[in-house]
Amino acid sequence: IMRAYEYDNITGDQREDHDSGAVISGAALNQIGVLTHHFDSVDDVNALATERGYKNRDEVTISPSALGDLYEGKVKTFFHEHLHEDEEIRYVLDGHGFFDVRSKDDCWVRISVSKGDLIILPAGIYHRFTTDKNNYIKAMRLFQEEPKWTPLNRDPQVDENAYRTTYLKSLSV
Ligand code: KMT
Ligand code: NI
User: pTM, whole model, 2 decimals?
Assistant: First the structure.
C-alpha cells in the first residue's frame, strides 16, 4: 500500500528511502491534485482508463537487466525535476519505486509505490521519479491519444508555462 512522507533532503543516494518520518496523508496528496489508488486487478485499471478517456498504454521495465548500460543514465534523467502538459498516470505491475512531488510550499513529498499502486499526477506539478535500492520496477504508462509528455525541466521560463500557472491557480481555490 502506498505511503507518502516528507523527503528528508539528506544528500546522498536518491534510491535510499529518505523518510523524514513526517507522514503525508492521502487527503493532503489530493489537495495538491495527486490521486492514488490500489488495484489488484487490471480490470480496475481498465475502468479508470475508460472513465478518464485513456485509450493507449505501454509497459516499461526499469532495471539494469532490462536497460543494460542505459540504466544509470535513465535513473538520473527520471530524477530531474520536471513537469508535463498532461496528466502522468502510472500503474505499478511489479517492483517498487518513488515518485517525489512538490508540496504547496515547494517541499518534496516522497510517494512510495509498489505492485498494484496507481498514481495520477496532474499536469503542471513539478515531480521526479527514482527506483529504489532494489533497482527494479515494471510499470504501465497510460496515454490519452496525443500525449504531450515531453518533460519540461524546472527553470524560470517553465515556471511561467500556462499549465504550471493553471495548476498553481487550482491550488489556491
Ligand atoms: C516517469 O515519467 O518518470 C516515468 O515514466 C518513470 C517510470 S514509470 C514508474
Ligand atoms: Ni514525469
Answer: 0.95
